[in-house]
Amino acid sequence: MKFDLKGFIAPGSEEEALVRQLDPSRLPQHVAVIMDGNGRWAEKRKKPRIEGHRAGSKAVQEVVEACARLGIRVLTLYAFSKENWKRPKREVARLWRLLEDYLQKQDKQLIKNKIRLIVIGQREGIPGSVERELERVETLTRAHDGLTVVLALNYSGRSEIVDAIKRILQSPGVNPESLDEAEFARHLDTAGIPDPDLLIRTSGELRISNFLLWQIAYSEIWITPVLWPDFRRREFLRALLDFQKRERRFGAVHARSSENA
Ligand code: IPE
Ligand code: IPE
Ligand code: MG
């Protein structure tokens, strides 16, 4: 087998058959995920919405480990949008508590797999105890050189762009003539992180919901009706296989067609 999947993917399983079809040299460097459908998953089971979020955290663990094992460099997870504050107070409070628990329990997995955790989004507004836990885990994992997990928390793509403009206007000696896309991107929260190659959204909604507006200019998009808590290794491998069938043209024509101009 081309990947280190011992103890993670059972020999003879459907997942193993999917992994065998993957081309390790053509994996996306960066996968970004809009983890949606936790509430509907719970509603279908007549459970409170928080149970859906709890089940969703298991899917997070599985996808994080899959990325680490496959050698994907960056995984960005949209966990809480700035707009999510519009939800009932109780759901919001429970979501943040769940995240805090998750961070407290994840140390071993992050260390074992040499995963680095970083956060994007606005720090102001995040509850203090969560903020402290985030800082602790960011510091703990700073030197790790395996997978980078980017958590989008209290995140809004439009706010990120406005904040970047503010930073540019405040930087000394700013020269509008020399401002270009690369320079602009250095002022975003995602400075230094390559743009997502693959964007996944679960639960079938056909929208972006204010996620990474600048960075997804040329991302390949995969939308599945599967609800986030049901999104496991198998679904993730299917998304990767579909990605490998895409032809990324970036506005150019395919090498074959250029002869027929
Ligand atoms: C995604 O699931 C998790 C967050 C937005 C925090 P939802 O809670 O949006 O689930 P649905 O869309 O209501 O099913
Ligand atoms: C997007 O899901 C935000 C996260 C996954 C954190 P939402 O459920 O908030 O998006 P909308 O409201 O359906 O657009
Ligand atoms: Mg939703």
Describe the structure.
With 261 residues, this protein is α/β, with parallel strands linked by helices. The protein has a single domain, classed as Decaprenyl diphosphate synthase-like (Undecaprenyl pyrophosphate synthetase, 3-Layer(aba) Sandwich). It is built from 9 helices and 6 strands, in the order αβααβααβαβααββα. Helix 6 links the parallel strand 3 (116-120) and strand 4. Helix 1 (14-21) runs parallel beside helix 9. The termini are far apart. The mean pLDDT is 95. Bound molecules: 3-methylbut-3-enyl trihydrogen diphosphate (2 copies) and magnesium ion. One 3-methylbut-3-enyl trihydrogen diphosphate (IPE) is lined by residues 35-40, 80, 84, 95, 203, 228.
Secondary structure topology:
Blueprint: H1 14-21, E1 30-34, H2 38-44, H3 49-70, E2 74-81, H4 89-105, H5 107-112, E3 116-120, H6 128-141, E4 148-155, H7 157-170, H8 181-185, E5 198-201, E6 220-223, H9 233-245
Parallel strand pairs: 1-2, 1-5, 2-4, 3-4, 5-6
The structure holds 3-methylbut-3-enyl trihydrogen diphosphate (2 copies) and magnesium ion (MG).
